[in-house]
Amino acid sequence: MTVATDTRALDVLADFPAIPEGWAYLDTAATAQKPKPVLDVIARAYGETYATVHRGVYQRSADMTLAYEAARRRVADFIGAASPDECVFVRGATEGINLVAQCWAGTQLRAGDRILLSALEHHSNIVPWQMVAERIGAHIDVVPLTDDQCIDLDAMAAMLTDQHKLVALAHVSNVLGSVLDVKRAAQLAHGVGAKILIDGCQAVPRMAVDVRDLDCDFYVFSGHKLYGPTGIGVLWARGDLLDAMPPYQGGGSMIDRVTFEKTSYAPPPGRFEAGTPHIVGALGLHAAIDYVAEIGLDRIHAHETALVAQAREALSQINSVRLYGPEDSAGIVSFSIQGVHPHDIGTILDEEQVAIRAGHHCAQPLMDLLDIPATARASFGVYNNAADVAALVRGIERVTRIFG
Ligand code: PMP
Predict the structure, then answer these.
(1) pTM of this structure
(2) Is the predicted ipTM greater than 0.90, yes or no?
(3) Which reaction does it catalyse (predicted)?
(4) Residue 357 and residue 236 share a domain
């Protein structure tokens, strides 16, 4: 099988020193490789300009504080937030969701209230809600999927009641690549007075996101999937919601005044950033946002859409391959091969210099729904091209030969 040349190739592979020639890295949905501008910012921050933030009276620390807060402004601009104060630096999407579960849901929900999730959510958008629901006596409902494996918004419309106080959904599924119509989901949630949290982990690296245009209430994402460092992510929340939320953790930096009798808290976002933050992580995220913005999210989206189409077309010609997710899935192709465990697919592909993910992708309820233990998943990033798709397809053809 030959794969057509990708005319939209972004030609940025040389920016990624950790991708050796001939290695097809197809695991960007797990974590993205880092471009040189991000590596340079990290090396310079630790190697030349390093100091703490928010506390120092010396120039170096004041400069670092400016850089840290400039990163927050860059994030706000990137996702269309009304103010940088609406952007809380967290460890990643997981921490962002836990923060909302504890500080918003944990204080706003009452026994008998309901939370609506979907059947394709990542464990990090399931377990934090279960923990808070159990504590409070709230209930969780699950929106099913359509035949083409997208979140079924018609079903959601029929399920929503005024007992629902929160809807939490993935913008793009990390397994299926299905893209949610966030605006419609928000409209439906708001129609019954519920808030809506969007897990933007897989969306932010591959499409332009404007949180105010989407009209959601909370939006979370991780820096490391956006070509930035690990250990840094963003929780965006509408200012009025953040203002009303109690702190997540106690410690330095999140206070206004501390005495042994009583402590008053800083306003957001500081209230939610106890302790010395991941300073260099924020600077690296800033560089990563600059990097993708310079390429252009629309170009990245078109590029990945072309690669997904090539991969799906080529894989669909192999009889024993079963593809999951909708035709227009964003950057992600999940598949299985009849009679072959996905881990064996991953191991054989590794011998062919093709790195994919095999497993349940932290979405066990989705695997149960599909009645499979795992899938093989190829996911694309800015550095991939038609040669990577061709290597994937050659590898799969070898798998099918080996397993007869
Ligand atoms: N949601 C989705 C859709 C994801 O793909 C991931 C990461 N696989 C997460 C949440 C959790 O992100 P992190 O582990 O960076 O906190």
Answers:
(1) 0.97
(2) yes
(3) (sulfur carrier)-H + L-cysteine = (sulfur carrier)-SH + L-alanine
(4) no
